[in-house]
Amino acid sequence: MKVSSKAFRNGVMLVTPMLLYSCGSAKKDGSLPMRYNILIIEADDHTQQMLSAYDQRFVQTPNMDRIAEGGVRFDNSFVANSISGPSRACLLTGKHSHANGFTSNERSSFDGRQQTFPKLLQQAGYETAIIGKWHLHTLPTGFDYWEILPGQGDYYNPNLINMQNDTVRFEGYCTDIITNKSLDWLKGQRNPEKPFFLMIQHKACHRNWLPRIEDLGLYEDQIFALPETFSDTYAGRPAAGRAEMRILDHMDPSYDVKMVSDQYTSALARSYQWMIGRLDPERRAIYDAFYAPLSREYFSREMSDKERAEWHYQRYMRDYAKVLHAMDEGIGRIMDYLKENDLLENTLVIYTSDQGFYMGEHGWFDKRFMYEESFRTPLIMHLPKGLETRGAIEELVQNIDLGPTILDFTGVDVPSDMHGRSLLPLLKGAKELENREAIYYHFYEYPAEHMAMRHYGVRTDRYKLIHFYHDRDFWELYDLEKDPNELVNEYDNPEYARIKSELMAQLIGLQEEYGDTTALRLNTERLMQ
User: Fold this and answer.
1) If 0-12 CB within 10 Å is exposed, 13-18 middle and 19+ buried, where does residue 20 land?
2) Which of 63, 200, 296, 368 has its CA at a distance of 20 to 30 angstroms from the CA of residue 4?
């Protein structure tokens, strides 16, 4: 049913005449078709350690793994800014945040007039569509079809904004609705005479991890092992110590852990009640019946801080895994459709996330930092006929590389102002990208929720240099070979003086290359002191 009429519009829809291209399967003589289809499936806050193609410790994701089994897994895939909207803007534009203008969820709006790779595909004859999470505060441009969640969207009975600029409520679970709408577009709404580019954008696995009602009982018997760094004290890392994302102290018992009692209230607890209030009475009764006994146990038990932190952790991990399960099922349905309709051989399927996430590492949930768990992101690809590379790729890659890769793959010129690099040589069997010795990161959203300080940095295959700035000034240097958990800050260690100097030169070089003048000025001022 319709809930409200018109959503806020900002940005200009660019309409460009399009050429027609064949998008059929491989020709009978074995030669490649004129154009490949492109499908990107992007999750929210899905981290590498919760995808079994990368890590078998916690969950199994068999349908996502199918994508990697038919192609490649990037083992060193990173984002340029580990926060939802900015990361999505980086992917769309192939540029770092300072260049695309969307630096912060809280202070930015995406300028829809700027160049994006979907627009370039559209101009080259592709039919383009995006369904699901957008989170850029303006409406999409460069897409022939779109239907998006307002803001973060809701897990239960979500609203979506359609191309008539109406906001419509749909009954069901958000992940299933996005999957169903994507299949509807593939089956009957697209032009079969044109190659397609489709972005399926899931809300999962975003906080606060509300499971599908049918999945409430999953993982309840599983005890998740605590990460090695669960009890991190943040010694020598003051920025980490200031962050407000500790599972013990900053997970809301109701909003995040779903424990409800008259004894406890908060603004987040009230928000949680509104979210589950979207359920119809029958499903709400099932939901309450599941969580009520857990709530009684939680609020009646005397627990030490250690016991309470571990309780929060187990509930967090189970709910996250349940939300992930629904998405994996939906991806299986998408892959089945492509296979059954002879599209897999002619479609590049990319699965990724807008960033990684902390699953208890350093005692945390959330993302934002340049530390490995949130800096890294899954990136797996099913490769169509003609690209026979298989297995793991070790080269450093970033989400700004996806746009250039897709343009290069489809024969569209890659604009010279894109910061990313085409990964097509790697998909054709190359072992490295020329002149890719380091990657760059910059996070801006501070002061804000979770209080992760502003910082930028550089990462090579072994070392990482980070500068935290704004109201404080901290530097950190990590030797990832000796210290993969990033517990020992070597910045002031004289044994790393040469490494520090080399990393500083690489950092300044990338800031100059990408035109990050604000960060470059901070470094220049430091060197002059």
Assistant:
1) exposed
2) 200
Rg for the chain (alpha carbons), in Å?
23
Kindly tell me the burial class for residue 344, based on how many C-beta atoms sit within 10 Å of its own C-beta (0-12, 13-18, 19 or more). Answer: buried
For residue 9, which amino acid is it? R
> Using CA atoms, how far apart are residues 519 and 442, in angstroms rounded to an integer?
9
- Count the alpha carbons within 13 Å of 27 in the hemisphere toward its beta carbon: 8
pTM of the predicted protein model: 0.93
- Decide if 389 contacts 426 (C-beta within 8 A): yes
For the chain, give me the number of helices (H) and strands (E)? 15, 17
Backbone angles phi, psi at 104, to 5 degrees: -150, 140
CB atoms within 10 A of CB 362: 25
Task: Please identify which residue in the block is written with the tokens 């969950």.
Answer: 59
> For residue range 505-522, what is the model confidence (pLDDT) as tens digits?
999 999 999 999 989 888
pLDDT digits over 410-440, tens only?
999 999 999 999 999 999 999 999 999 999 9
138 burial (CB, 10 Å; 0-12 / 13-18 / 19+) is middle
CA atoms within 13 A on the CB side of 504: 14
- Residue 503 burial by CB count (10 A; 0-12/13-18/19+): exposed, middle or buried? buried
CB neighbour class for 164 (10 Å; exposed up to 12, middle 13-18, buried from 19): exposed
Q: How many CB atoms lie within 10 A of CB 155?
A: 23
Neighbour count for residue 283 (Cβ, 10 Å): 18
